[in-house]
Design a protein that fits this description.
The chain has 3 helices and no strands. It is an all-alpha fold.
């Protein structure tokens, strides 16, 4: 089901230039999505406390945003680990 996405991620992780660009892009996206999720979450909480109708939509939106945030975070961590391992493997052992 996710074969194409997995293959694209593998290709990105294998190419150092694309990997660094993806790390920068995911860092920016994670920050943006995290801030938006926090704002929507706070708005939903205010809606719940004020007893307003239609709060379920805000709670659902916040949950979806947090899910996207977690996905970006896990992809970013994985790419950073690959980057660290690649740098460690390129160094020559000291004699």
């Amino acid at each position: 089901m996710f074969k194409k996405q997995d293959e694209a991620f593998d290709e990105t992780a294998a190419d150092p230039g694309r990997r660094r660009a993806k790390i920068a892009d995911l860092s920016w996206r994670r920050t943006l999505i995290g801030c938006c999720a926090l704002v929507v979450n706070l708005a939903a909480l205010v809606g719940v406390w004020s007893g307003g109708r239609g709060v379920a939509g805000g709670v659902l939106a916040a949950a979806l945003m947090w899910g996207i945030f977690i996905r970006h975070e896990s992809d970013l961590r994985l790419l950073r680990i690959v980057e660290r391992l690649q740098k460690g493997g390129d160094e020559k052992p000291k004699a």
